[in-house]
Amino acid sequence: MTRVLTLILALLTSPALAQVQGVLLDEPIDMPSFSFTNETGAEFSDTDLNDAWTLIMFGFLSCPDVCPFTLGNLEAAVTETSMRVRPDNVPKVVFVSVDPDRDAEWVTDYAKYFHPDFEGFTGEREQIDTLIEATDSFYRLMRPDSTGYYEVQHSSSVSVIAPDGTLRAKLQPPFDPGLTAEFLARLQISYRKELTQ
Amino acid sequence: MKYLAALALLALPTTGFAHDLAVRDAYVPLAAPGATVHAAYMMLTNPSAEPEQIVSVSAQGYAMAHIHKSEVVNDVATMSMVEMIEISPGQTVMLEQGGLHIMLMKPEAALAEGDTVVMTLEFADGTTQLVEAMVMPLMKGMHGDHSGHGS
Ligand SMILES: [Cu+2]
On the CB side of B144, how many CA atoms lie within 13 Å of its CA? Predict the structure, then answer.
């Protein structure tokens, strides 16, 4: 009873702790083969997932609110994480545009605006759908308005891929930098424990 | 020329006195390359005794502006048009990241820090109010800082 009370008090006194920054998957999910490109000619494929932690965010460039703030928060979260983990465990951040028709010419510049190490890619619809499905994510292009402009709905969470190339967790809004870094650091500890067992 | 000046003077009182929302922390985040849509955020308070209804917005330097609302429902981020922002007497409405915002479509030029974006709020009775928003870095605007103001 005392313990429960203490916990509740802790939550009350620091409301930020009550936010869930991520969810762990019950079972790791293997990623299928996929391939994306960008305007610099670089490629991002499933083999790039090996030997590093990767955060994959889906979005689109004509998104003035949710996407830039997610990337801005990820930048802060990765900076936080880099103070807690070894340099080779600092996650790579990959932005995947689900709107290649409008975004193909800009997706790298866009991602690098938030951090020079961030990467941006897009690709064929089929490749996008493959990765969306594999990460249990979602997107939908909405009907264009009279000016031809259309909205894109997309998953708000960010997929966390471990160095063995499997999906392990999802980061969730509001992506508080400190708490997200804490979540990632803990995830990495449990991952290493699992490997040594 | 004189005629124009007189006209301008005549025009002023009708746009601005009828509606005087208190506007605080109006800002437009700097946008990444390739972003053809910007957003404006602000805090609007209605100090009058009458409810205020903002029915449309226009912005200088943009083809169009809409009142929009972002939402995350079941992990899906969506945006939708909002017909009207109603602010009752004494109430404050936040336009903030992840919620209500002014969607600024098709900028004529790239934004630079320190620029001002001038917007016109139009009310249900047809009168208007000008709002000036500062252009500033994304996270600076976000943290800078709405929590300091009591409601
Ligand atoms: Cu919007």
Answer: 14
How long is chain B?
151
Dist. CA B129–CA B58, nearest whole Å? 11
Comparing CB atoms, the residue among B33, B75, B98 nearest residue A106 is B33
Q: Give the A window 122-161 contacts with B, CB below 8 Å.
A: 138, 147, 149, 151, 153-157
Strand partners, B134: B27, B116
Identify the H or E element spanning A167.
Answer: strand A166-171
Per domain, the residue ranges of chain A are 4-191
CATH, domain range B2-135: 2.60.40.1890
Where do the DSSP E strands lie in A60-144? 92-97, 119-121, 139-141
* B123: phi then psi, degrees, rounded to nearest 5: -95, 170
Q: Which of A96, A88, A77 is nearest to A31 (CA)?
A: A96
pLDDT tens for residues B15-60? 445 668 999 999 999 999 999 999 999 999 999 999 999 999 999 9
What is the topology classification, in CATH, of domain A4-191? Answer: Glutaredoxin (3.40.30)
Chain A CA closest to residue B34: A106
A66/B contact by beta carbon, under 8 A: yes
Give this prediction's pTM. Answer: 0.86
| Torsion angle defined by CA atoms of residues B119, B125, B126 and B131, in that order, rounded to the nearest 10 degrees | -10
pLDDT in tens, chain A (197 residues): 444 444 443 344 444 444 678 999 999 999 999 999 999 999 999 999 999 999 999 999 999 999 999 999 999 999 999 999 999 999 999 999 999 999 999 999 999 999 999 999 999 999 999 999 999 999 999 999 888 889 999 999 999 999 999 999 999 998 999 999 999 999 999 999 998 88
Contact B34 A72 (CB under 8 A): no
